[in-house]
Amino acid sequence: MKTLKIIKIGGNIIDDASSLSAFIELFAKLEGPKILIHGGGKLATKLATDLGMEVNMIDGRRVTNAATLDIITMVYAGKINKNIVVQLQAKHCNAIGFSGADGNTIVSKKRPATPIDYGFAGDIAQVNTAVLEVLLTQGVAPVFCALTHDQNGQLLNTNADTIASELAIAFANTYETELYYCFEKNGVLRDVDDETSVIKHISTENYQDLMQQRIISEGMLPKLLNCIYAIQKNVNKVCIGKPEMLSNPNANFTTITK
Amino acid sequence: MKTLKIIKIGGNIIDDASSLSAFIELFAKLEGPKILIHGGGKLATKLATDLGMEVNMIDGRRVTNAATLDIITMVYAGKINKNIVVQLQAKHCNAIGFSGADGNTIVSKKRPATPIDYGFAGDIAQVNTAVLEVLLTQGVAPVFCALTHDQNGQLLNTNADTIASELAIAFANTYETELYYCFEKNGVLRDVDDETSVIKHISTENYQDLMQQRIISEGMLPKLLNCIYAIQKNVNKVCIGKPEMLSNPNANFTTITK
């Protein structure tokens, strides 16, 4: 089976022009089928502020009312997505931008309004890989923003980490799937303040020990559980770290395996 | 040869929610391969105004500085494009949104800064149909916004009418191509104030007579020349009129043929 690389980049890479352009260069050079998923960064909040809108967050999660969904659609699917695509094209990587509505690729359900009403937030119900597989075969790299749809005409704001893991899981039957979460740290750290304290290997067997010993920081927990879930659903390999892990096998990063 | 329908909708359809939803319903029902191109409408100007930016127009053409290009990218490729795609999906039409950067489909050159500097405006240099053909074969309907790229990382604002005619021309060797310009009038009118005065047929032979007799209004001239150019470049049929021409052969509209 061929290997498919699914790579997610977070806000810190997107918000910094030089980090983004270094990442673009790196991604463009990766051989074989690949999919990119990008988060939103601070640009949506900036545009909302510039338009005099209030940004409403609960526990670090954005509450997406209709006006906020408009902003997100403009920033995620418009500005960020097209800027990534146009930069990849300049590096001879034939990218095509996607939301989950495009090609009906990612169908989600609006999150129930109780106990907390997050507005137009969607939880993924189904991933349709057919169109994506055709494009991957043609050497095209799909680039996803964090929007999905409900098949009834509604776009929904969806967590980019989850989009990445659900895409990886959906392709696990047809490819050897590798899932990479790129962010600003070297990986899962024993001590959040010490970049050299990377836990190099986490398995489905030892992650609960690490959790019980409270070695995993609270901020890392949802990301790690996402990773473990992907591994349990037959994704071959999940890595967390800085983008350099994609090109340098000697780099410091965390690998999660069965 | 199979028939490919290439349909362009203008701002007046996009700006009005009920016109747009009627059009979406109509487009979704069209059988066979089809491509949609949409203009921008007034939303980009509204967002620019809301952000306190000046909108600079010369002879009805937008001057695209860097900030304006950002706005256009957000509104055209983000808000309008994704809203059309999500509504088409709700009507079971498997749409995928495109700018000319996506799939490297439309390459353009920045317009020279003399005699008038339109900023980041692009004139189409090349259309690459390979990826689009693969998608059309899969039953996917590409939906284009009016942005192209220069292959060096620069998005460029490009006339939507021209995108439509250049796409039709590029496909003329592989499909019987039909090009439809949908707008708010019944077609090319003998008297701009009389909707019943539609000129039903214009040919490459009689259009110059119509121009010399000054029967074609000034506003219609660039659109008509675009149509004549497409016909001369082997597009099979070009029509101008209201969207109903797509479903009702007895509707009043203008057909341009050899």
TrEMBL record, chains A, B:
GO cellular component terms, A-Z: cytoplasm
Chief place of localization: cytoplasm
Domain of life: Bacteria
GO molecular function, one term: ATP binding
Presence of the UniProt keyword Repressor in the record: no
Binding site for substrate: 40-41, 62, 157
Site positions (Transition state stabilizer): 8, 223
One Pfam family, short name: AA_kinase
Function (record text): Catalyzes the ATP-dependent phosphorylation of N-acetyl-L-glutamate.
Listed HAMAP family: ArgB
Protein name in the entry: Acetylglutamate kinase
Organism this protein belongs to: Subsaximicrobium wynnwilliamsii
